[in-house]
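TA notes. Do not distribute before section.
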Amino acid sequence: MSVSVRVLNADEARLLTAARLVAVEKAPYLAHALFSTHPVAAEGYVDPATLVGWGPALAGGVLVHEVGHLVRAHAERADALGADYDPQRWNLAGDIAINDDLLAAGVHLPDGVVTPAALGLDEGGIEEVYYAALSQHTASGMRLDGVDDRGGGDDGGCGSGAGDPPASWELPADDPSAPAVGPADASMTRRRVAQAVREHATNRSRGHLPAGWRRWADQMLAGPTIPWRRVLASAVRRAIAHAAGCHDYAYSRPGRRRIPRIVTPALRRPLVTVAVVVDTSGSMGQSELDAAMAEVKGVITAAGIGTQRLVVLACDAAVGATSRVRRVEDVQLVGGGGTDMRVGIAAAEAIRPRPDVIVVFTDGYTPWPDRPTRARLVVAIIGAQATSEHTPDWATTVRVTAA
């Protein structure tokens, strides 16, 4: 079915503004998202005539619902379901998750909107759980207003912003009449909404905040969980590989290439030496240190670096002195004051043969060298109160967290 899409006229724009104001009154934390979108009229789908029939209160509720799909990144989350995901079932899962929260907040929605309870599901769930619980036949033929009209082409559902295929009423992203919100602006908008949700939650006088929105905001602001073991192992592995790859020519062994009256050099692969410097101050976490050392030791062993090419230095927390230990397992943390890891790094660089890689374990409360080290420097920040704020830009820094 062909859908006519056009810009709003003045009367329609005023109607939409009234609906937005109602939406902001019910869900003030979505204000930035509601006013960041560029509305158009899609005649034959949800067009201005439909909004007039609904009135500002109901139209505002529908706007909150549709913006909810965008803010909760349902299109992006659909990608994680795999190439064979069912877009209708995912749209329905998003619908019931959003409607569940909006009805709990007192937002007006059209009669017959689909809810978890209507489908025999628990309230307060998340989209991915609902998607897994919904059967294929249940998902087909349902949409926001409860009308069984998905079979009429690509115009059912909530569009590509909810994880559906692009519908005929959607404009191209570069359409000048209503330019799409770019990925960077969309990410910034989601973070601003998440901050507003968190602020709303702390001000109970402003009304009820649905649990689903609070859960989403906490996940949004928490950021991604970084697998520090993989990152640390990768950083050390790359540093070792870089040092091992620094082949050079040397005359200590003649080359295989024979040229009359000329002695050619042979390509010499250096033996890699690794120095591990451990901050032994009491503010370090012993369990995190043990786990991080195990990762580094595993990488070093896998790289074929023997004990004779591995040096472990313990940097004393009290006086900034260093001591050489035989094994990583021999390092014990002690109480003490400020640490100067410059002493430990300088001691590592003074070792002969000079190390190609230096791995530093510290809580971060230490001065650092003013210039890059000759060896590649990997810093593992350890401890509940640790900081990586002053770690050198030229070092590879990994934050080690408790298991």
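Switch to the second chain here.
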Amino acid sequence: MKVLITGGTGSLGTELVRQLLEKRVPDTNGPMYTDKYLTTKPVERIAIYSRDEQKQEVMRQLFNNHPALRFFIGDVRDERRLELALSGIDTVIHAAALKIVPKGEYDPSEFMKTNVNGTNNVIHACIRTGVKKAILASTDKAVNPVNLYGSSKLMAEKLFVAGNALSGSIGGRGCKFSVVRYGNVVNSRGSVIPLWRALAGQGKPLPITHSDMTRFWITLDQAADLVLSMIPVMKGGEIFVPKLPAFNLWDLAVAIGPNGSCDNIGIRPGEKIHEALISPDEARQTFLQGDLFIVHPPWDAPVKPAFAYSSDMAEKLTVEELRERLT
């Protein structure tokens, strides 16, 4: 397996590299939608494609200059540079994106250049260089988006699904494109848990935007494992959504700072009370297999009754369960 990770120096990219190097390599001929897909064959090459040379150097040192690692300075906005980096690559994990919601509202054109145009460049570069499979890491914010970031990720998802028609993979040829969609990653950079822990340690009140707000729970290692697990089983055009537990933000605040107080600061622009991972319209072409929802592509979409999958409907973690997971 020769894989390139766009945005590879980010949190997800770093965890993907760790799992690829330390754990296992997906068997691209494995069974459909199961976890019995792994071999002991070492990964041949992991190419990291990102803009920040300093983060690349930090990653190189973190993994002790592993011989399988290659580093390319580049931007997904640059299609020609992408094509050079993809030479000899068979699998692409597209994780590069601008993600900070308020910045998307302030600099929408920059978000579009990276999240939409950049994704389109990845698709065309994959097709031109003979990549076999490409998978997009997406977000709950792409479902019924209320902010620019979510809108750009929805467009990225649409482009990836449509990429199968462009490449000819629907007929069994060409590069296959699929999507993995999940919610906010626990303890990721900029998330609420590190902030609240720091404030609780200082004895300060925890800011909470709405007492009824709910979110899904997924850790960084689970997110990376999910992405890697879908590579061998994807047929092209699917959107893979994990079935996850959820939690109430108020319960999380109690779990982190049980003796502290909370400040209700109100919902911020572009923020939802509940996360949604599957919309009612998508539900008509969605099926649950084990702990995985699979949104079938439009050309392979059996129709069924609509439902919604959002964090207010999912099984909730208790305060004690949250404390256990926070340790």
